[in-house]
Every structure is written in C-alpha cells, then in structure tokens.
Amino acid sequence: MSGLVTLGESMAALCSTTPGPLRQASHLQLSIAGAESNVAIGVRRLGHPAAWIGRVGADEFGSLVLERLRAEQVDVTGARTDPDAPTGLLIKEQRTPDVTRVQYYRAGSAGSRLRPDDLTDSPAAELVADAAVLHFTGITPLLSASAAAAVTRAVELATAAGVPVSLDINHRSALGSPDGLREHLRPLIPHLSYLFGGEDELLLLADTDDEHEAVRRLRGPEIVIKRGARGATVHAPLSDGAEAPLHAPAVPVRAVDPVGAGDAFVAGYLAGLLDGAARAERLRLGCLTGAFAVSVASDWSGLPTRDELHLLDAAPGTTLR
Amino acid sequence: MSGLVTLGESMAALCSTTPGPLRQASHLQLSIAGAESNVAIGVRRLGHPAAWIGRVGADEFGSLVLERLRAEQVDVTGARTDPDAPTGLLIKEQRTPDVTRVQYYRAGSAGSRLRPDDLTDSPAAELVADAAVLHFTGITPLLSASAAAAVTRAVELATAAGVPVSLDINHRSALGSPDGLREHLRPLIPHLSYLFGGEDELLLLADTDDEHEAVRRLRGPEIVIKRGARGATVHAPLSDGAEAPLHAPAVPVRAVDPVGAGDAFVAGYLAGLLDGAARAERLRLGCLTGAFAVSVASDWSGLPTRDELHLLDAAPGTTLR
Amino acid sequence: MSGLVTLGESMAALCSTTPGPLRQASHLQLSIAGAESNVAIGVRRLGHPAAWIGRVGADEFGSLVLERLRAEQVDVTGARTDPDAPTGLLIKEQRTPDVTRVQYYRAGSAGSRLRPDDLTDSPAAELVADAAVLHFTGITPLLSASAAAAVTRAVELATAAGVPVSLDINHRSALGSPDGLREHLRPLIPHLSYLFGGEDELLLLADTDDEHEAVRRLRGPEIVIKRGARGATVHAPLSDGAEAPLHAPAVPVRAVDPVGAGDAFVAGYLAGLLDGAARAERLRLGCLTGAFAVSVASDWSGLPTRDELHLLDAAPGTTLR
Amino acid sequence: MSGLVTLGESMAALCSTTPGPLRQASHLQLSIAGAESNVAIGVRRLGHPAAWIGRVGADEFGSLVLERLRAEQVDVTGARTDPDAPTGLLIKEQRTPDVTRVQYYRAGSAGSRLRPDDLTDSPAAELVADAAVLHFTGITPLLSASAAAAVTRAVELATAAGVPVSLDINHRSALGSPDGLREHLRPLIPHLSYLFGGEDELLLLADTDDEHEAVRRLRGPEIVIKRGARGATVHAPLSDGAEAPLHAPAVPVRAVDPVGAGDAFVAGYLAGLLDGAARAERLRLGCLTGAFAVSVASDWSGLPTRDELHLLDAAPGTTLR
Amino acid sequence: MSGLVTLGESMAALCSTTPGPLRQASHLQLSIAGAESNVAIGVRRLGHPAAWIGRVGADEFGSLVLERLRAEQVDVTGARTDPDAPTGLLIKEQRTPDVTRVQYYRAGSAGSRLRPDDLTDSPAAELVADAAVLHFTGITPLLSASAAAAVTRAVELATAAGVPVSLDINHRSALGSPDGLREHLRPLIPHLSYLFGGEDELLLLADTDDEHEAVRRLRGPEIVIKRGARGATVHAPLSDGAEAPLHAPAVPVRAVDPVGAGDAFVAGYLAGLLDGAARAERLRLGCLTGAFAVSVASDWSGLPTRDELHLLDAAPGTTLR
Amino acid sequence: MSGLVTLGESMAALCSTTPGPLRQASHLQLSIAGAESNVAIGVRRLGHPAAWIGRVGADEFGSLVLERLRAEQVDVTGARTDPDAPTGLLIKEQRTPDVTRVQYYRAGSAGSRLRPDDLTDSPAAELVADAAVLHFTGITPLLSASAAAAVTRAVELATAAGVPVSLDINHRSALGSPDGLREHLRPLIPHLSYLFGGEDELLLLADTDDEHEAVRRLRGPEIVIKRGARGATVHAPLSDGAEAPLHAPAVPVRAVDPVGAGDAFVAGYLAGLLDGAARAERLRLGCLTGAFAVSVASDWSGLPTRDELHLLDAAPGTTLR
Predict the structure, then answer these.
(1) Domain F4-10+35-87+107-302 part of CATH 1.25.40.80
(2) Which of A199, B262, D6, F193 has the smallest count of CB within 10 Å of its CB?
C-alpha cells in the first residue's frame, strides 16, 4: 500500500432523479455517498492504490457500500461491519436544476461509531502507516466524540510514520456550528501538509471574512482553494516561502449536478501528487476531474479513469466511434 | 375561508418525459392539470387558503384530481363528481427541449359540464361569497355554454359580496377563435379588479396590435402583463390614476418546462395580494414563483412553499446540507 | 390480397403496469388497442396477409396506430386519417392480478366516424372484395350509426364477392345494452360463415340462458364458443348437418393478462382457416395463440409468429439457448 | 367525527420493486407506511370518517405522509410536525416473491416522540372523545416511553368518553422482546373492546403455546384471530357469554405482497363495525379487504373503496369494460 | 419508386439514457441505428419515397430493424434476412452531456455480409434503377469486401440508369484507417453527383489539411460541408462553373444529443433536392432537420415530418395548445 | 486460496424485464452472465474463497464484469483484459413467464480467446494449484480451440497439484453439436472428481437414452443429476462402491426465472463440499441455493449469503421485521 488512505463515513444514498420536490418523486435512485470514499474512488480510478477506513452496519446498505468500494478496487480491509447500528443514509433532492438539498439519517449510525480502537492493532493501522498520503475531511470529527478521537489517532499514526496528512474542510451545517468545526479542526492544522476548502469554508475556519487574512492565518500546509465554476487556487506551503499562488480555471462543461465536484477535485489533485506532478499540473488534474463529476448526476460515478481524461479536452459535442 | 376561490376544469395529464415525438414514447407520466387548480395550489403552498370549484368524472382520473388537490390542502368541498361524463384529459408532448405540444380530450368532459346550478345553494356559493379574491381564466367560458354561464354566476356572486375578481386571459386556440374569447370575456371586464395576460393575449383581447393601446382599452382593472423570460409589468387600476407602470425582471434559472409558468406567476402575484403586499412585491413574488415552475417538468409540482422561496435567491449551483 | 380483411376502431392504449388503483400509478404504458386490429396482427404474424380498415385522427396517437400496424405488416391502405376528430383512447387498469378495468375516450373519436363512404370507390372496397375472409366484431356497429352502416356495407360487398364473413360478438357494455347489440347483429347473422363468442355473449345474442338453445337459434354459421381457461368448442355450420361439436382444452400457461386472449383465439382460428386446416386444427391453433396472448401484458404484443408456436408446447420453465 | 381514530407512527417507505437483494436494486419506490394509518386509510375508503394522530418531521418525508393522508381524506388535524426530529423511514426488500424483509430508521424519529401532551388541550383530544372507535397497535407503546404514555392517555380519554377501544397486537421484534410487549399491552387489555392478532402474536401475548388457553386468558374483549391464507376467527367478548367462535375463509387471490394484509383485515372488520354489521359480516369484510391488500405491492394503495368490493367476488380473470 | 434508395447496415442500438459510465447504467434503451436508414427515415418523413437495402439476421434484433423501418414507411422489399449471421449491435454511451462514445458488435454481422448478388435479379436492383437518387455512406465499403463490391454494383446500376449518386463520407475509425477509406471511396468520386462530409472528413478524404485544397481536389460532385453548430456550406458541382459557395447557419436549439445530426442534415438536403428546391433552400432544410435531430436523444426518432418543420422557426419556449 | 477456482467466459447480459417479444421491449436491463462466474459468486456468498479465470475486453462491458466480480469478492487476479477483442454479450428474452430465449454475441469475443498461456507463469496457475476444487463447464471447451486447450491445461495443473476437478456439462446447442461436446468432454472424465448435469445432458454425454446406463458409463466421478423442479440425485463415486444414490426434492418456491438455477445448485453443492459436509447435506444446500436463484430474475443476483439460507425454510409469505 503506497497510495491514499482515508477514513470517514460512507452511506447509502437515495436520490431523486428529476427536478422537483422529493415528496412527489415516485422513486429514488439507490447509490452510495461519502466525501472520503468519493476521494478514494477518484484516486483509485486514476491508477493509484486507495483504501477506505470506516464502519458500516450489518445490513443491505452496509453491504452496498462495501460492494461498491470493492468494485472500485478501493481497499476495505480496514473497514468494519458494526452489528449494533444501521448504515447511515443520505437523501438527495434535486429541487431545481440548480438547487440540491440533502438530508441525513446518520445520527447513531454505524459510520458515526468509528473509534480509535478501529485503528489499533488492526489492518487499518498498518494501512495508515504505509500510506503515501492520509486524507480526511471536516465531516468525520463532527460525527461523534469517538469519531473525532479516531481522526486524531489516525493523524498521530500518520505523523509518526512520516505520512503527509491532507484535510478537506467540507463543512456540513447539519453536523454542527462553525465553532464546533473550528474547535475540532484547528488543533490538527499543524499536522497537515495539505488543506483543501471552498472559499467560504476557509473564511469560516480562519474566522475572518478576508481571504488573504484566512490564508495567512491557516498557512503552514499547502492551501488549495476550490472555487467551483471559477476554478481553483493553490498557495504553496509555508516551507516553500514566497512562491506566488497559482490559479487554474474550471473546465467548461454542461453541469448536471454539482454535488461531489469538490471531492472529485481533491481526488484529482491528490492523484497528481501521487503521480509526482508539480502544483500546476495537480491543479489542472483537479479541475479536470471535477469537470467529470459535475457532468454526471452521481457524486462519484462520473469520476474519470486515467484514459478518459482526454475526453473533456476534446471539442464539445464530440462523438467517439 | 378568506383566501382564493377559483373555478374551472382540472384534468388528468399524461406527459412524455423526454424530448421526441409522443408516438414514440414508451410511457407517459400521470399527473393532473388545470390552469385554475394550478393557481389554487400555488396560493395554498404560499400559505393562504384556496378552494377549487369544478366537476370531475366518477372515474379514476376524477379521483386522481380530487386526491391531488386534497393532498395540497386545496378546499374541494365545492367540487362535484358528475356520474355521466368522464374526467377530461390533457396529453403533453415534449417535442424538443424548447417545444411543447398539448392535445385535449375534454369535449363533453365532466369539467366542461360545469353549470350555474353548481354555484346555487351549494358549498361553492358560500366559498365565493366568503373569498378574499375570486379568480378565473379565459378557458372556462369557452368550455361550454353552461360553463360560461357558471362563470358569469360566480362573478355576480363575488361582486354582490364585494369580493374582488381576477381574470387570467389564458387563450387556448383549441377551444375557440379570438372572436369567441372577446365575446365571452369583454362583458366581464367591468367587474374585474385584476386582469392577467401574456403580451399576445392582451393584444388579442383588446383587438389591437399596440400594447399601449391595449392597456388603454382594457384598463379599469389592474393589468398585469406576463412576459415570460422578460419578466412582467403591472399597470395600476384606473382608480389609482397616473401611477407609472412597474416592471420586474424574470429570475434567471435553467428552464426545464415553460408550461405552468404563467399560472405560477399569477399564484405568486395573488398570494402577494393576500399577504397585503404592495405591487412591486407582488410582481417579485410572481416572478419568483414562475421561476420555480419552469425549473420542474410538471405544471404545478415545482411550486414553492413559503420557506422555499429563498432557494432561488441563492447563488446558482447551491447545495444545501 | 388473399387474406383477412377487418374493419373497426383502433385506439391508443394507456395501461398501468403493476396491480393497483390506476389513479396511484406514476406512469402509464403507451401502446395501441382494438379488437379487430389485434386479430389482423395475429393473422399476419402467422403468415397470412391481413388488412385493417378504419379511421384515426390527425394526431400523434393516430400516427402511433398506423406506425404499429405498418410495423406488423398489416395493410393500412384502406385506413383514413380524419382531420376533424381525435384518435380514440383506451385506459387499462390492472386493479389486481386478476381484475382488469377498462375506460374509453372514444365518443366522437375518428374511429367512431367510420362510414359507408369509406368503403366506396376506395382501396378499402377492393380489399374487401379480394379478401379470403372478412372479419368484424360487435363493437363496430355500436360505435355510431355511420359505423353500423359501414359494417353493413362491408358485409354486402363481401357477400357480393363471395367472401366468407366472420363475426366475433365482443360485447362491450360501455357501448350499449344487449338490446342494441341484438338489434345490430341479428340481421347480419344470415350473412355469416363464422360466429365467435364467449359463453355469455352467445346467450346474450340469442336471448336465452341455455347454451344448447343459443346454438340452435344462432346456427347457420359455424359457431365457435370461447371458454377462456376451459378451452373452446366449435359447432359445424348448419350446412354440415349433424356433425358433432368439437372441444379443445386451453393450453396451460401462467397468465399475465387475460385481455386480448379472445382476439388472439380468433386470429389463430382464422389463420388455421387460411391455412386450409380442419376444424380440430383451427381450434388447436386458436387455443395456442390465445395462450401466447395471456402470457404477455399487452393485448397483441405477445402474439406468436409461426415459428414460435412450438414454444408453448415445450415443457414449462424451458430455456432455449 | 364519528368514525375511527387511531394514533401511531407513519413513515416514508422505500421499497424494492422486484425480487432480489435490496443492495442490488437500482432504485426504490417511495411511498408511506404505518400500521395505524393503513387502518385509517382502509376505513376511510370504505366510507367512514377516520383520523390519524401522530408526529412527522419538518421535512419532505413528513410532508409526504401528511399529503398522502389528506389525499385519502384521513383527518390529520390531530397530527403534529416536530421541528426537532426527522420523519421515520421503513426500507422494504422483496427478497424473493415469498420473503419480505423490513428495516427501520425510526430510532429518535419524530413519530417516536409522540407524547401525552399531544393529546391534551388539542384537536387530538377532541377527536378521541368524539370517536366511534379508538384503534391502536402494539407498535406504538414500544416506540418510546413517551409514546407508551401517549397511548395510555388516549385509552383513558376514550374510556372516559365511552368510546370502545381496539388493539391490534402487531408485534415487531425489531422494537423489543415479547416481554416488553406483554408488559406494555397487558395492562391495557381490561380497557379493550376488540383485540386483533395473528396466531403467534396471540400466543405470545398470552404467554402460552395453546390457542384455546390464549383466548381463555385474554378474553374480555372480542378476540379476532388473523390466520392469513387460512382466513380469520372471531371469539365473541366475554359479555356475550357462550357464543361459538365464527370462522371465515380467506378470499382466494394471486398474492403479490402479504405486507399490509393484517392492517387491511382490521380496516375491513372495523368498517363493518361502523356499518353496524354483525360479526360474520365483519369477518367477511375483513377477509375481502385483506384480499385486496395482498393483490397489490403497496401496503395500503390496493385497499378497496366500497364500490370496488364486488370485484374480488367476480370470477378470476374478469375484465370489466 | 421515384425517391431515395440507400444501402448499408442497420443495427439494433442499445443506449444509456443518462450521462455517466455505461458500465454503471442499470438499463439500456433499445432502438435501431444505421446512418443510411437514418437518412431514409428522414427523407420519408419529409414526404418522399425512400427504400433501404441491406441484411439483417433472423433474430429479434433483425425483426426490430425491419419493423421500425416499415413503421416509418421505408420500403424494405430490397432487404434480406440472413439466417447465418446475427444482426449487428451498436452500444451508445452518454459519457457526459457533451461526450458520446459508441462501440459496435458488427464484425461478421448479417449487415456486413451484404454482397453484389443482393442487387442482382432482385427487387433491390429495380429499386436502384428506378430511384431519384441513390445514397450511400463511407461506412458500407469498409464493412467487408463483399459489402464494398455491393456498393460498387449499386453505383454501377445507378449510373447505368442515369440515377444521380450521393455519398456521405461518414468516417468511422473503428472500421478502418483513413487509407482504407480513401482506397474505397476515391474510385467512386467520379460517379458522384453529391458528396457530403464533415470538415475533418473532407480533409481526410482529400489527404490535405487545407479545406480549399480539399474542395479543389474532390470537386466534380456538388460538395456539401457539414459544420455542426457552425452550419453548412455547399460548393456547386464543377459543371456549374464559378458559382460561389453558399453558407447557412445552424438553427439554434438546446442540443440533447449530437449523434444523428449529420444524417439528419443529409436527409433534409436530399429531401430538398427531391422537392426540386434550389441549393440555398436545400441547405436551410438540411440545417433545420439537423436541429430536430440534436433536440432528441435518439439518432432518428426526432426527425421532423413536413408539418413539424415550422416548430423550430417559432420562438424558443413555445407551447402549442 | 483454498476455495473454488473456475475458468470460463463471463459476459455482459442484456435482459428484457417483462414477458413478451424482445424486439418490443423499450429497454433491456444490464448485468453480467457466465455459468462459471455464477458458481464462483454462489460459493463466495456462502463464505468460501472463489476465483475466476478468464478474459474480458478493454471496454465498458469488460469493466462491468470485473467490477461485479470484485464487488462479490471473487478473486480476479487471474483474469486478463484483452485489448484486441470485445467482451461477449448475452441477450436474454423473457418470451413468456415460462419461456426464456437467449442469444449470444460471443464469436471472437475476448472471453473465447482464453488460451493455455493464460495459465502459465501467471497468478492463474498458482490459483489453480492452491485451490480446494477446480470447477469448469462444458461451455468453455466449445468456445474455441485455444479455450479448449486452456481447459485441458487447467485440469492438468489441478491434477498435478492433487486438486479435485468438477465439471458441469452445461450443454449450449448454440455452441456446437452433441458430438462436439462428447469429443471435448469425454477425455476429461477420468480426471474428474465431480460431474454435474441435467438429465438430458447426462444422456447426451453418455450417448444413451437410459439414465441408468448413462450413470454406468460415466461413473468414476461422483455424479450429480440436476432435475429442476423435481430435485436432484447424487451417485457416489466408483471408489465408494455400492453406496445407494441419494435424492433430494426441490425447495418449493414461486419461480420467477429458471435461468441460473443449475449454476446455483452447483454452487450450493460445492460450498457444501468446501464445508466438509456429507453428500446428503450438499444436496440439500444445492437445492436450497437453486431455490433462491429461481426466485429472482437475475442469474446470480438472488444467490444467498450463508445467513439468508434459513429464509426459504420459513413458511411462505413470511415477513421479517
């Protein structure tokens, strides 16, 4: 194992398939969801090993999560099936073509019962120690106290083994206030090599409304700012001194569903890192991977394989046959 | 009952779900349709009482209409089930993303058999007399002679009770010529407080090809001109004298289906009226409600509740979770 | 043209696809329906020419009817498109696995406007004169006075040309009382060579509650009694004197939808006639074709081609590969 | 209000539509579920007033529950929307044509937060006091301590107002052990007029493995034993003394889905009670209503209206047109 | 027969219906495909006779192809059913809204077994000799040596009968290299009256990277250059001397699927030719027909009838009712 | 690896979902198929390691096959992706509820290009040598000469390593004559420990029409006769001498689709073998697993996990909640 290792909660996802109020849908599409597993799938499709650590319930939805990840060749030897709690659910409503709403059934879920022991004397511990990069998101520490402790444990294991650590802020207001987010994430910043976030999330974590000030406060790790349709920016880590920030524009595509684009960007960026690519190329890869994600309704299904990357460089309306 | 009361025909709607010739669809989606009930649903979702008066057949489609309206909390105590005629049908074809075609099976339908007696000594009569506003469209008088007489009766009842009357021209060429429309609607104009129409409909009703002249000829009621993607304009009633017309732009959204947008606009405008809002706010509410309607394939299913109104003020591509 | 010619009304069919109240279906399947065109399709699939005479509207549903019949190689050169009336509709509800309910929108339809002129100086007239058998059902004369006259005209044309005439009683209570049925069909009996009916229909036409008496009263033509899951019986025509009636059992299959089975039986029986087969073989072919029809939800889609007939002779649960 | 009043939890239901492991379904059908609301819908469709008391979340699934019940004309003025908890979910898997599995997401749900206050100084309290019969199931007391207390309150209110009380045992092993069931239900038995249960449930409640002994121990109320495909038996209440038990066979139909059949039976039986019918007729009505329920995949959608009852008395394979 | 005759391979088409990797689709839509039959359908819908010559297998997919073409009134009397090879398949993946990928199962297919004999002493030979125009594409000669020979035979037959010949280059890289394409098509150019191609195809056929040079090298026939969203250009045949090229812009529509647009353009252009229209009108008709094709997901289903052509001249968002 | 290893062809499967002619289906369901991978999935779900050796194309269907097998935890480290040939296809038509027809697109497929080298110096060779049982079917040797040689190589490798070999005759008439089957399979019989077949297949392989004679001729291996709805019989291997044959009845279930039942039986039987169970228990497990397979439309999706086995022992119509 020399690729990406991530930990968090993956859930069954039930999604409406046409715009309108969810309550008036006749059926919902069944899939899986989870910011961290999205990243793992994305990195794996781009050719690097990837492992996901977490818990699922001993139910059909838990089997669904594991089956899907195995199908994607994501290593789940560090995952556990918890017989005492159900797999979490995410309900996704396409209210209009431009507005998506999400509801969770994850309180008390198996995924939220992740705990430090899951990373002790377990395959998961070895996965972390052998990783090329450990990635987590701001969602996991807010799931429960034990999940927060598990994140801390994972970061400690990685740091001890010299494995660089990556964080995507991924603020979910349903899981807690900005105060809670700051409380959980700030102590971890000194251990980070890479910090990803949307513009608002960065301001929120740094508790300021000025982006320059936010970067100044948070810097230490390489900071990558996701700007959606306006592309992305990377600030080199403090250790690289005065290097100017780099910006890359988004790849223009017809967007079907923005959900998952941020995870896809991170997957592309980290796959670039595992490629040994320079920052500009990582940014380009992140934007390209993000473009695939928004082109498909699913959070992760549209993620590209390495040999599909050229498709969105081709002229629009291209037919390949 | 102190909200909106409307009368007209509601039908079962069978709609193709992807662009192309209807004859090559494998299935059609089943829903309900009716300009007046669309308005009633829209007003009700925005928090005001709404009642629908009309006839349905003693068949599954009639039950569908009543079930749906009851689900939406539209008062149907004034509706009748006619054992001697079938519920009308609307067939909707999405021929291309930008062209919708509609065919009706409403000749001899239960809905077209509405008659003045339906408003005599009936719950319907009380609903009209107690209403805050009576709304009807130019469709109903063209359905049949008895339906035209029923509309006249309703307007008389409303006028007698001091209830303001609202008309949306809603010209359907399938139901008759412009001459017929003018013949039926012009005598009612003196009784109107609110007159809604598209640009073409206004010209058609006023029998001119100049909008200023049309407004001049028709004024008396407040005149609201629906301009689709170009927004809407309101001319204050004659009683308000020289007040300048107000214009509001459309809310920019990715349009899925324009059908129902006009009804949605009227619902928003009249809900604003029932809120006690000023004209500018009514216009804004009409445009916002219309934007929801065009964002969803159904005529009415996408109509917003009060607490959803903010969704289309948010930035495009917003995900709420 | 030396095969079957039939005349009647074909409609668009909208059918629910799972058992339950139609009003709670989310969509309906789009197909075509019509007892006479079902028979034409069945005969054509079994290898004989078949033509359908009737009217459709100048709308998508009319195009659907003609496209489907052309696809099935049923000759529609005798069909007309009526610009002044819509194509009829049939709504089919699978209320439970064993109860099907049907509602029509055919009052004033193009199909019901069939008239004698449609068979004058027209390709239709030639089709009838050149046919090997003319088939019609008890539905058509009840559609309208002009349709009844058209049937009479067709029977006259056939008789004049020495073409044998076949009638399937096919009583639809929605179209009229038993009295009306008797009034229209009895005068035609002397012109018939073949008379098909269910047990109840035969009693109804003969106005008796004893089957032997019914056969005695109606005989003249060959009388074929369809008994559903209990098979079928044929009484030789009067001209064949004292020949004993023949009975054939139904072919045992898992029934999906009984609608269309009677038409399928007639198609098989008449195809046997066109084959030159004896009565026993015609009966067998009728029962076999009927078995295919009940095995598929559609009225006609499951009808067998000649080389599929052996499939239902094979053992149950057979897989062919 | 002089009909049935019931209280309990209604949920959104997500159901697979073809046999197989749920995890391999591509989509799930969205509907509602709840034993008590099933009974309310069934009674209402048979023509009697019915009201449902309970809590839903302030989310799309909560709106779905209320919309559906309103569509069915079930009175929901006694229902509350709880802003602090989500609507419960039921996941239904058709594992094989004969095996259905159900999973719940109802821990901490709005529905489980029902409490005695919901029946104090509220429309709910009046509904109970004015009811012709109060019905509840063994599910509700096991949802939470507050729900158990709410049931007790409702029974007290009914008893005080002279309203007869009906209980369907409806044991759900997911909600607790048989001991818990007995603990909660036995104290209520003295207040019951009607006690419904499956054979196993009756033994379980009476803590014996002999049905005669179970009836002996539990009697007092009229005891109705639901035996699925083997029909049902009623034992007259103790007050009716030595009257012999009555048995009715099940109505033979092709079963699509057994879930909901028990609730349907109770609905038919109680509707018969509200009709003023004798026990034998109530039993017949219960069996007939149950037959409709098993004929349709949904728990409640197949429930019959009064004028549909004759459909399952007709011969199998009947087509009505 | 005085219309268009074409020959080539038509296949069953299996298409994903929403953007994403094909392997993660739960189902594929079943239809037919074939560049030449697309053109035949397009010409036929615009009111001119059209015939298709080719082979299908003796299987359900072969029946599907013939049924569909018959439904469209395309003459298939010149088509053969080959008992020794399967019907070809086309698998179409909508990878993103803007990227379509196509895979074929046509090696050894019935369609690729077309041979000169199919045009000897056959209805096909007469169809060609009586045609108003013979159309083929660059796909057919690359299917197999016998198919190439059949194309040559058809061109010879047409030339001998004075029937003008039309070629659409339609390069499919899956079928062979540009060298192969040039080898097969160049010898046929002297026999052409009309040559259609995309910009790249023209360069490829002329073996140059300059469009002017390509036109210079290939001229002789009228050359029509399809430019997708940028419209189309026609260069008059050499015989018309110095006439300036004409250009027409594309008709602006919301594109759903670009596949089939080129065939649709050719159909419109050739229908214009059969109308006797001038070049400018042919171009306009080609662009309009192409606009219909891109508005619908299917390659051919969206093709317009003559009386639908006005629909895309109307204002966007038009609803006709 | 100490479980089952199998080799053969797995394909994409496209299946109609309701009874009727495939050509009239609007869409086909996408899944995978392959007798050998069905067995591997079945054994794996019952808790034993399982590996599949074979080739897929470098296309979406190939990815689908590998993704699905990985999801099922079937080891595919011995599988190869062949860049020069497409993945095979199976088209499955549910012609009636009792008749299934299958068509293949596997000539020249990647799967048919399996060759001995695939088992030389490869992970596949090690998998075979370490297996607890090697299983293959009569399909694979008939795919191509190289595939036949690969089977022979695998049997040699297994024999050399002392791994018992199992064969399921699985005659596919589409792949060759009974002569071909006998020619390929008979030389392998001396190497077999287990021989499975349907009644007809056994007669065909032994070239006799008497089952006793067939068993006499083929014996040596343990012979297991699959009798569908009539259960299964096992004849002990010759080495066990005079032991009487054992019979087990089929488990009664409502059959949805018989395809895959034979593979499921073999999976259950071999899983029993890997459990170390006696013959009677293996038979029982085979019949139980087969019952699950026929209860679900897919060939393999309905296969049971170990903890689901009890479900079909429960009473019919059981609901678990």
Answers:
(1) no
(2) A199
